[in-house]
Queue: 2 jobs
Job 1
Amino acid sequence: MPSMQCYRVAFSGGADSAALLHALCQLRDALAPAEIRAVHVHHGLHADADTWESDCRRICADLGVALDVLRVDGRAGPGESPEAAARRARYDALANLVGTGE
C-alpha cells in the first residue's frame, strides 16, 4: 500500500460506509503509522440528521476512530435538485478537508 499519513472515510453511518470503516480498522496494523479518521457530513436537511451524527459518533468511539463532523448548507439553489445540492455540498466539504498524504 502507498505510504499515507491519514486515511479518511466519508462516513454516513450507512451499511456501505460502515463496512469500509470496519475493513480499514481490521487493517489498522498494516496501515500504521497512518491514522484512520471518519468524516461525517451533516447536511441539516433531515429531521434525523442529529441522530445520524450521534450514531456515527458512537460507532467511531467503539472502533477507536476519530470523527470529524462537517456541517454544510445542503439546500438546493434555483434549478438544482435537493440530492444534487447535498452531493455538491458534501463533495466540496470533503475536498476542502483532505490534504496531501491523505
Note: The helical segments are 15-26, 28-31, 49-63, 82-97.
Job 2
Amino acid sequence: MIMIIIIIVVVVVVILLLAAAGGLLYYFLTKESDQSSGGPYKREAVATDTPQCSQIGKDILNANGSAVDAAIAAMFCLGVVSMHSSGVGGGGVMLVYNRSLQEAKVIDFRETAPAQATRNMFKGDVSKSKKGPFIF
C-alpha cells in the first residue's frame, strides 16, 4: 500500500515538474517568435490574400485613412489581382469599431441573387450560367 502511494506521489511530482518546465519553455520561446516578420502591430494590421493588396491597405492607414478606407482599397485591389475569388459584385461581412462612440457594428454585405433569379433557372442547360445575360 505504501509503495502505491509513493508511486502516485512520484508520478504527480513528475507531472507537475513537466508542466512547470513546459510553461517556462513556452514563456521564454514565445517572446521572439510572437513578433511578426512585418514588424510589431500595436494598433492595426492589414491582411489579404496577396502582399500587394495588403500593402495598399497599409499605405491607406499610414496616410491617416480609416480602417474602412483601407479595407475598401484592399478589396478593390483584390478585385483586380485576385478577381476569381473576390471583387465588385461579391459580398462579405465587416466588423467596424467606432472608438469615439465605443461601439462595434457588423456590416453585412453578403451577395444576393437578382429578384428574378429562380432555383431552377439553369436546370437543363448549365451553359447559361457561364455565358450570356445570366452570368452576373
Note: The chain has a mean pLDDT of 80.
